[in-house]
Amino acid sequence: MTSTASQATEELYRDGIIALKGALPPQWADDLLHDFEILYAEAEERDKAAADGAGRGRVPRGPGENPRRYYMAVHPQRLRGFRDLVTHPLVDAVCRGVLGDDYQYVEIGFDVALPGAVKQPLHRDFPTPDETKATGKLSSLAINVTCVDVTPEMGPLEIVPGTHFDDGTDFVNGMRVPSEMYERYAGRLQSRMPKRGDVSIRTGLTLHRGTANTSSRPRPVMIMGVMDAEYKTFADHELTMTHDYFESLPSDVQTHLRRCDLTTNLQPIFQDYVLDFLLEEG
User: Fold this and answer.
1) 280 in a domain, yes or no?
2) Is the CA virtual torsion 227, 138, 159, 121 positive or negative?
3) DSSP string, 113-158
4) What pTM value is reported for the model?
5) Considering its fold, how many domains does the chain have in total?
6) 204, 139 in Cβ contact below 8 A?
7) pLDDT tens digits, 40-95
8) Distance in angstroms (rounded) separating the CA atoms of residues 31 and 45
9) 108 bridge partner residues
């Protein structure tokens, strides 16, 4: 684990990603996997209503009619470990160091590469914001937590460290790396194979891709989006939780949930935001 928050922040600005090894106990990740499996089954059921125009419980993140790679948003309170993650002192310190003391949680969900998932195109999660182009300041982070011990056969994330400030003018929609540009990055790709309890924090601007899952097991990873207080993303992000759950959280966590929608009863999540270029084979 990176030893101090200042070192972690410096490393994140240098490489675009940091690894917090053993940040949480393996049992915490086992509980996360159990929660994921319940939520994923519910999302599959919601997909059956998609033909009626109700939206989907999952959105594809891979090509084909049966993409084998999906994203699904979830409610924070459906995850037993949410409180542990958002109160982790180093997670909090890195978010403060990069995004400022008033950072805001805006999204939580799971990416899952099922057995048979194919390689994604090399991409960013969003085009470079104008502020980052002008000042070099990062406006958002993604906190990633694996639910399983990742092996080479399970389709680990590949990332190209240090590419978060690269000029994306020639990228498709400012995000997807054209195939003719792959050669410049091929020798710098690194596979990430975290273990249960590991946490990583990255900027979505760092070039990355999911690889082919040739194993017999899914590879689910929880992703939590964090932004500075003033940043507005091009995508619609909104967390929802009940008033009672919100009030049960520590006050210093509540201050980072001002973009959260509070409700009396949770409703199923239907979503339709799709990154079209991820539906093409990498």
Assistant:
1) no
2) positive
3) E-TTPPPPPPB-SSPPPHHHHHH----EEEEEEESS---TTB--EE
4) 0.93
5) 1
6) no
7) 999 998 888 766 555 688 998 888 777 899 999 999 999 999 999 999 999 999 99
8) 22
9) 224
